[in-house]
Fold each of these.
Amino acid sequence: MSTSNLAIRTVIFSMLGSAGLAAIKFAAGIFGNSYALIADGIESTVDIFSSFLILLGLNYAARPADENHPYGHGKAEPLITFLVVVFLVVSAFLIGWQSIQNIRTPHALPESWTLWVLAGIILWKEITFQIVMQRSKKLKSSSLKAEAWHHRSDAITSVAAFIGISIALFGGKGFEVADDYAALIACGFILYNCYGIFRPALGEVMDENNHDELMEEIRSVALTVSGVEGTEKCFIRKAGMKYHVDLHAKVLGNLSVTEGHNIAHQLKDTLRKEIPQLGHVLIHIEPFSK
């Protein structure tokens, strides 16, 4: 299975899970008198729309290079990640605003059975987070990382709701707002995670050259190619799930232009074979004297 197909299947899995959980949360929140659960349901609903955006982004980013996009369409992925962050920020503020309104309005205690619902939701969301995060690391996908943190944010919101409902039930009358304070605190966690999602995507758009492990791997593979005496500059740019490389390779200065050209092609082919996540590879030959 190709990397893009695996990423798309992962997002579809997330969407189906979020849709089912949103329905459960809304039902449990309404009938169980818990705004923290309703807030949780709102976040899951936002997750469905953001997952759909990620799905569109992955499909577009997987398009091959063309005349107008010689480096491919991978930059669409971090741009979609920015939209996902906007969705998360908006949902956090909406939940926070409604929580404040509920704190100012007296209401009944939540039902005790909502704790069982939340326990199941927390377990499922954490399992989903681990699955999606593992695949995001495997595929080097910033949008899948954002998708994974959706699930972790959802799990955190559910943990906060669990604690809030527990306090409300244990404290009894007068502690009803604990449920709403829990939803408010969860907003802070969501906003914190937004930064964690946004920062790597920004680095990708800005072509930050901070891929030290991959750089060392490229240099090591380069030295296995006959005629390559060493390497100098190595610049790496990430675009979607591919890495574009500019590498300066040192060769003996007494070689002909044709020999240097052939070494460059062999080096490029070897790098792309040994490191499949590489996309466009540009080799610059540097004359070298022993």
Amino acid sequence: MFVHPSFDPIAIHLGKFGIHWYGLMYLVGFLAFLGLGKWQINHRKWHGWTIAMLDDALFFGALGVIFGGRLGYVLFYQFSYFIHHPLEIFAVWQGGMSFHGGFLGVLVAMWLFARKYQIKWLNIMDFVAPLVPIGLGAGRMGNFINGELWGRVTNAQWGMVFPKVDNLLRHPSQLYEFGLEGIVLFSALWLYSSKPRETGAVSALFLIGYGSFRFLAEYTREPDAYLGLLSMGFSMGQWLSLPMILLGIWMWFQAQKQRFN
């Protein structure tokens, strides 16, 4: 049995202000995006990309993550609450971000980026996909440090007690997602994209990989108290991940058709 260390959510105290661990995890994700992106430009055959474009892509993507993530949380998870407290939509410092909303926000942001540079949208997404999982993993580590999004009750020997919640043994589901959505997904995408692939294939692998890992991890994650489990015993996270998996499979077969045309 393990006990969650109950970390201080503020990593660096600066008088009355402080830098939160979760904010630092966002920084890790953005720096990883830049570092890995520069490596791709310098060592892989990604024609047309420059460092200046990469910086611009990060700016567009960051806006997509922040606005999409917040809007997704409002619409997917607590719409009934925010419809009666609309001003609190802007209180992002109180927490409340959705990956799936952030993902949709990034899709829109990269569409605008593609229009600006006159590059095919799928080519942009194929370049960006391998740069994302490190940030996803960092975000899950931020969840773990904050002791939030804890897992369901378990009898597993590696279960963990989260004192801020109760004294029950629970899955450290944040660490499962850190490993799957961060390390495993990054490794798969980085290796797969190391060779030229058909347009859309790398993006398809991201959709299938993230959607599948998130769907499985949700079985160990405590459902949101204000939602619970939905139809067929699936959580909201699972229902939002299913379209990603299905779209990814369709895109994969569409990409493979290019090889035989």
Amino acid sequence: MTTAADRDAADPLAHFRDRFVPADIVAYLDGNSLGRPLRVTRDNLVRFVDDVWGERLIRAWDEGWMQTPTELGDTIGRVTLGAAPGQTTVGDSTTVMLYKLVRAALEARPGRTEIVLDTQNFPTDRYVLEGIAAERGATLRWIDADPGSGVTADQVAAVVGPGTAVVVLSHIAYRSGYLADVPAITEVVHAAGGLVVWDVCHSVGVVPLQLDAWNVDLAVGCTYKYLNGGPGAPAFAYVAAALHGTARQPIQGWMGAADPFAMGPAYHPAAGIRQFVSGTPPVVGMLPMRDMLALVDEAGIDAIRAKSTALTEFVLDFADEHLVGKGVRIATPRDAERRGGHVTLDHPSFRDLVQQLWKRGVIPDFRPPDGMRIGLSPLSTSFTEVERALRIVADALP
């Protein structure tokens, strides 16, 4: 039997673990919530304060800062999204970006008043859509998704129709880790005349995406998970070039104007993806993700996906052998083609156990009602680390 140590010895990405700031813990199994910082980021933040912000001061806006949302967006698009330049921008929180995209999609389909969403989507997605529906007089059409899997193309086909303006779904279900069939679902929505907004928060940086090839309309994602941008790092928005003439975002700020420094009496949107910028770009907040994007580019997203699949398979195998007999239920798809970068294990005692694990330096997270989510960031996580943590979980269960 191949041991965790054997897997680490054969892991072509093992050397990347040394690039991360070490932590005095037993195991970090929550990289899908907050990625670990890179050593180089610490150095680059100091350099930025001393050499750029400190020396160039406000001149730095003319020397590059103004273009950071779209330039960094292009990097995210190239390295992780399968997106051509000019379709991705960075800024705001995921919640605000989602609001912008859904409102833009709704207005781009005049005469259609239905928003389709699912019962198992992340709370922010559901809450934002409830607010937009109330604001715009739209109707919510719910898909009752299986919490152990996710939304299928057939389920979407059953609810979309001539009234559908926009469908909002997650590429990877935040609880179960189910990986949705983006091309098939997108095709179904397009056949009904609607648009799709994909939430790629749990897939960007760990699962290869091909937004252009999949004919995706709009997508939103955060950068503090697998892109290691740090707590509160700004989100990104992808808007397909075909929609740039019809999708107009609702938060009209001066940085998204055609000429920000004209200080004109009326708003005129910038051309292309720049119009989805609203306020002053969070320049400092963009710095850490630059470093991680460089690392993802160096390692290669396909190699990252291969290790992610191996790590999740390792967790499933361990659970079958050591945890299922103790009443643990696997809530994540076993098919690697339908599984993202994390595994959720269910047990009635996990709410209390996760708190105990944190005190012992083993850090997964908990998702109600009884799920322990094992988040595996491939470039910073070893098989040995995962095995060590899971053995502690096994020992703690009766």
Amino acid sequence: MYRVCFVCTGNICRSPMAESVFRAHVAADGLDTLVEVDSAGTGGWHEGDGADPRTIAVLEAAGYEQDHRARRFHPSWFDRLDLVIALDAGHLRDLRALAPTAQDAAKVRLLRSYDPAAPAAETDVPDPYYGPLDGFEECLELVEAASPGLLDAVRAAVKEHTA
């Protein structure tokens, strides 16, 4: 099993959205028996909570399923994860600092790095939490734009993994 974990700050907005969208891409590609997708936050403020209602509304309006409980990312998870996807540069820095080894730190990548149309200076998926609903819609657009490139990378890794 190839394991991917999306990580944002509180695990109630961006990372559960990315988890739902990417899980749908994985399933549509027929990889759902080979790829496990989940998410977590760098902090534990919302542990046990569901996704933000605005995240749920935007996902449901776009036809994505979600069933989410927030949790905090633990450094011990690096052992079982193949790819850790950070939603912004702050998460990237925090996760790489948590990584027990250089090999683990290399597993951490920015989501938007998989979007070929993303400008080099715009690496973050902005946090929509303190803003209006359209911030959540923008978040979904950015996640959707990066998902095909991420799927290509995961598909190639799974082939290598199972070869």
